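Model it.
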Amino acid sequence: MTQSQPSRNGFIAIAALFMTAAISSGAHAQGNTAAGIKNIVLVHGAWADGSCWSKVIPLLEAKGFHVVAVQNPLNSLADDVASTERAIALLDGPVLLVGHSYGGAVITEAGNNPKVAGLVYVAAFAPGDGESAASLGQPYPPTPLAGELRPDAHGFLSITSRGIGEDFAQDLTKKEKDGLVATQAPTAAAALGATITTAAWKTKPSWFVIAGNDRSIPPDLERAEAARMNATSITLPSSHLVMLSHPTEVSELIAKAAATAAFQKK
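Modeled.
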């Protein structure tokens, strides 16, 4: 008995140690779940590239998020969706997709990926099934930017310097505007006219940043889209490039969406 008692006590001590570790591990796992989504994929729109998120990325990373900015070719909606899906495939765990402008159409299709837990639209198009970015604007008067688009011989559109300065980025600095003119990415008109097969916002929770002074997409359209998808939305007094003129507010909404998307269902 004197020899078995220490053995029994040792067994109890070891069992208690494993139980403590299990409880600690469970609490840690719950903490990770409560923290929400950590992967954020940013999808740029027409006439842009991933650098349009340059002010938002460091703000999100400072909050502990893993951020990826997609570089879309802007040749076709299918190519841009494929580019976004490749970025999603490289990430472990759930993903929050964020799309600006035409990038909203991209995330509307790519968002059907099962790893995508939520969608954030930033001054964006959010087409429904069978709709396109271009078709959404038809019920509304043409925006000022429409008159500043110039096609080339290959079916790609560019924005004039005046269009960028007055209708695309009117609240940015001259230096920023000059940079946008020099680096803009011509965009295939066909990409803007391509239709969505299945709109992910019908089944995924959504958020929307409405640019109140947008001269590229009608603010009334953005409000109508947000209402149609029952998105949590904010309105900022901004040009179309709201993530460059109001990066703090945009990043804060993205962070809130990431914190809650995994727990919301439509």
